[in-house]
Design brief:
disordered C terminus, alpha/beta, two-stranded antiparallel sheet, 12 strands, about 350 residues, binds iron/sulfur cluster, 13 helices, TIM Barrel, single chain
């Protein structure tokens, strides 16, 4: 691999350049993305996180894609903030099934003064299990970001969702500038940033290019970049949105990989609607992180054993975090799961599961 591919970390992308990449012949684009990927990551490893909704529904924001918004009637069962013991129990279980990062999401505009002490305690206790911690709680003030970092929060998720131009058609209750401010507060507090977007909401290719520019031109690239495919939930304003062409989605993964070569690109919501071949192409294009578990906040996620079976078919290993206290235990649990699935795949032909 050339040294230039490895060292090129840029923050001065233009939408024109990005569109040029998005429109490359598919094979050229994927070849380039895979070359960049190999210069920075083991191509046969995928980072695995588990996500838990710690407070569900009744969100005052009006994000048009979201079943948790109180503005839409999606039949979602609302839940108050979960008790700390319950969250820690779920985190322990996630660790035992091999997750290295535990992400906790609350459907809030922002955490309030009453909730903050609970949330901080959750972070401390989950961190004590030896897991990396991530939260998504809405907008954060500088003080809240400091407090979360002080409690041991490693990552904060706050998505830009789409381009600045298209944003107003998706969310009206907070601005793009609000989002950028939260991201800055998270960075200033010393936490890692998880920030990406959602594709297939009716945006143009230019909007997608501009989203990638926004992400790559931040002073530091987000360490984690979730690329979501819209899940068209009944009752939300986007329930009848036209489906995005899968190759457009794969192209976005590849271009994100090229533009932000050291970041983990996460195949996120919408994965349950992707067949194995599409997921494999996404991994080839540079996706190297997934959520693992039965639910992705409130939309279904492929069953964990299906993930393990796919990993076994592709020879992919779950990536281990660097200074994990229970590294051996976690690695063993996941490797065993992959091995069992590999043997099962050899022994059975499951016609019902062909997708
Ligand atoms: S995406 Fe987040 S902020 Fe927007 S409605 Fe859903 S839970 Fe609320």
């Amino acid at each position: 691999m050339s040294a230039s591919l490895k060292s090129e970390i840029r923050h001065d992308w233009t939408a024109e350049e990005v569109r040029h990449l998005l429109e490359l012949p598919f094979n050229d684009l994927l070849f380039q993305a895979q070359a960049v990927h190999r210069a920075h990551f083991n191509p046969n490893e995928v980072q695995v996180s588990t996500l838990l909704s710690i407070k569900t529904g009744a969100c005052p924001e009006d994000c048009k894609y979201c079943p948790q918004s109180g503005h839409y009637n999606t039949g979602l069962e609302k839940e108050k903030l979960l008790e700390i013991e319950k969250v820690v129990g779920e985190a322990r279980q996630a660790r035992e099934s091999g997750a290295t990062r535990f992400c906790m999401g609350a459907a809030w505009r922002n955490p309030n003064a009453k909730n903050m002490p609970y949330v901080l305690e959750m972070v401390k206790q989950v961190k004590d299990l030896g897991l990396e911690t991530c939260m998504t709680l809405g907008m954060l003030t500088a003080d809240q970001a400091e407090a979360l970092a002080g409690a041991g929060l490693d990552y904060y998720n706050h998505n830009l969702d789409t381009s600045e131009n298209f944003y107003g058609q998706i969310i009206t209750t907070r601005t793009y500038a609000d989002r950028l401010e939260t991201l800055q507060n998270v960075r200033d507090a010393g936490m890692k940033v998880c920030c990406g977007g959602i594709l297939g909401m009716g945006e143009s290719e230019l909007d997608r290019a501009e989203l990638l520019c926004q992400l790559a031109n931040l002073p530091e690239h987000p360490e984690s970049i979730p690329i979501n495919m819209l899940v068209r939930v009944e009752g939300t304003p986007l329930e009848n949105e036209e489906e995005l062409e899968p190759f457009e989605f794969i192209r976005m993964i590849a271009v994100a990989r090229i533009m932000m070569p050291r970041s983990h690109v996460r195949l996120s919501a919408g994965r349950e609607n992707m067949n194995e071949q599409m997921q494999a192409l996404c991994f080839f294009a540079g996706a190297n992180s997934i959520f693992y578990g039965e639910k992705l906040l409130t939309t279904p996620n492929p069953e964990t054993n299906r993930d393990m079976r796919l990993f076994a078919k592709l020879g992919i290993r779950p990536e281990q975090r660097q200074q994990c206290q229970d590294e051996d235990l976690q690695e063993q649990a996941l490797l065993q799961a992959v091995e069992v699935k590999r043997r099962e795949a050899e022994m059975f032909y499951d016609a019902a599961d062909e997708r």
